[in-house]
Amino acid sequence: MKGFKKVSWIGFGIFTALVLSLSLPVWAEEAAAPPAPAGAPAVAADAAPGAPAAPAAPPKVDTGDTAWLLASSALVLLMTPGLALFYGGMVRTKNTLSTMMQSFILICLISVQWVLWGYSLSFGPDKGGLIGGLEWLGLNGVGLEPNPDYGATVPHQAFMIFQAMFAIITPALITGAFAERMKFSAFFVFSLLWATLVYDPLAHWVWGVGGWMRNMGALDFAGGTVVHISSGVSALAAALYMGKRVGYGKDPMPPHNLPTVVLGAGILWFGWFGFNAGSAVASGSLATSAFVVTNTAAAMAALTWMFIEWAHKGKPTVLGAVSGAVAGLVAITPASGFVGPLPSLLIGIGGGAVCYFGAMILKNMIGYDDSLDAFGVHGLGGTFGALATGLFASKAINSAGADGLFFGNPKQLTIQAITVVATWAFSFVMTMILLKLVDATIGLRVSKEAEIAGLDISEHDNSAYPEFAVSMVSTSAEMSVSYAAPKPKSSEKSAEKVLR
Q1: I need a labelling partner for 452 at 20 to 30 A (CA). Which of 294, 329, 366, 425 fits?
Q2: Higher-scoring residue by pLDDT: 72, 494
């Protein structure tokens, strides 16, 4: 065992050193090279000094950019069913469908919310840097002509539907924290409130024209703060507020179907290309760069998690490898449009290591029950990625961005840190308030008996595995007795009464 650990650490150290040695010369070249603004118009040599500028051409739809953005929208939509498979395989058998149901229903719920008022609150005309106005309610004024503020070459509705997919998956990520114990009615109400009062304001702060974080210069290419920090920190709040599952820490609660988890992770990885590369809102060099670094960081983080787990626990696991890949995808998200391939390797290493610590060590140290490690992966991974953007961002990659600390601009790291702290505070406090509100009105948690029986049956009257339904009900009855009366002799007598 010690030999395996030693080999794992040595191998990981050599690999990391190799990445560092290759990265440093390239950073130096990028720092020395002047930024080349993408798409800058050429200046005519014979232009007369002081000649009046030609009127700007009206925005025109580019079919290639539009096709890429619509395809990216479909890719991002696919991520939510992928998340349903990923989460559904990680819970126990008796909670498979209830977990998957939450992700699926959010596609429906947030799609409607986004059209009616969500998009207007997120991207509508600015109101004091805090929220979008109500001018675009029901997509009034959001038509098929481009809006230069958000996409000069694509229909405004194309940008709108692309952003809708981000709004859908973000609350779905939170469900991993309260899996196996929240009532479906409470989940429905909480998700609608959270999307409106947490996600929409944050989206406006970071991405909306006039948003205070955008005006400050915060960099978040594809949602490290808006999507991952907000959902991850909210997941922590939910786990702390709701408490642990019945039997947590006493009974084993391993994933019931790892092949489903792997399939879900693969779909997430596939869809993430639309998530990050699609955020360029155009097909071209920036989308290509984001695509490359997304894949690179995910692969590096998966290897990092595997090596650390191998050294820490003696064996690399399938769940660890796929969790590492997702951690890398999360970490690269805010930086994907601002960094090159070699920095993305380091972001992958850092993301894999930070998220391993959060999911495998920090959770046990603090003792909270984040069922599917939504905080450990998305909260901490998004935080690391947002700060790493302040280190590695380069205008040589994206002239519309900013240089980070390693390219001579320490101010950017400060801006990123302010953004992270504000997002943490807002997400945590607002989520706690919403949880308290829902709990006080309709109640958050299912009964102990319903939790023991499983939410598939108790909440939805379905079973993912009908052939095991009878044995599951029988086992649940026995478990409920054991929690009510832990003494062996009394448990046997009570079980007979329950089963009758």
Answers
A1: 366
A2: 72
CB 136 within 8 A of CB 157: no
Residue 55 binned pLDDT confidence (cut-offs 50, 70, 90): low
Distance, in Å, from the CA atom of 468 to the CA atom of 103, rounded to the nearest integer, reads 24
438-459 pLDDT per residue, tens: 999 999 999 999 999 999 999 9
> Which tokens hold the place of 488?
């062996």
How many C-beta atoms lie closer than 10 Å to residue 338's C-beta? 30
- CA distance linking residue 341 with residue 332, whole number of Å: 11
Fold for 63-441, please state it: Ammonium transporter fold (1.10.3430)
What whole-number percentage of the chain has pLDDT above 70? 82
Residues 6+ apart with CB under 8 A from 179: 87, 90, 91, 95, 99, 371, 372
* pLDDT of the residue at 33: 40
> What's the rounded Cα separation, in Å, for the pair 293 and 298?
8
Write out the two tokens for 435: 């949880």
Q: At what angle do helices 285-313 and 318-332 cross, to 10 degrees?
A: 140
Residue 36 pLDDT > 50 = no
Within 13 A of 35's CA, how many CA atoms are on the CB side? 18
Q: How many other β-carbons are positioned within 10 Å of the β-carbon of residue 320?
A: 23
